[in-house]
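Write out this protein's structure.
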Amino acid sequence: MVLASLTLLAGCANQSGGNLASGSESEARRELPTDSDLTDAQRRARIRLQLAVGYYGQGQLEVALDEVKQALASDAGFADAYSMRGLIYMDMGESRLADDNLQRALKLAPNNPDIANNYGWFLCQNGREKESIAYFQSALKSRSYLSPAKALTNAGVCSLKMKDSPGAERYFLQAFQFESGNPLTNVNLALLSADRQDVERARFYMGLVTKVDVLNADVLWSAIKVERKLGDRVAEINLVTQLRRRYPGSAEYASYQRGVFNE
């Protein structure tokens, strides 16, 4: 879901630059900055960040980190680069460095909804779920936010961690209205439906999940839990086979092997 929140380059032009004056000085009017206002150094920084995002998506964290380093060498005030570096450090298990970079990104761009969403996800993954919700809400308040389904789904996941099933379902249902094909949203709606024995609704959401060709480990693990609750042994074994084949070293497969289904 963090990757799902990376719309880093949309609308991030000139985070560290000023606006251009328009009209006479007495009118004191200003225009919003666009790509043509960027310096050559800022353009280089954005290219490096694009590369970092690509490497991050492939799991090449050290290479991604180096690209971010070069982006910041070109533009030391590039908020999205600090946000990206925070996510990389989070995945590396460097929580303090992740927190430092994400907070710096927020100081540089306090109204950037993607950065707010990223920091909320960091908090959620580090035992600070209650704090995280405020950052997801902040992202959702922004009219410039292009991916509200991501923040809503993240808020749903964090609400589940707080044992707030009604709140989680509200977030997931809102996310579904924006993006009905998101497997993480749908598998959690299926799981919540199965918990209250609403088999028909659980099957509906699971049908959407299984339309996706490749599911990541956490979605597969949640789907296994759904099928176990619904008592479909054949479907459960099929999902377990996928989890074992694609993610044999994952924490999710280790949980399956231990028979831990209620964590």
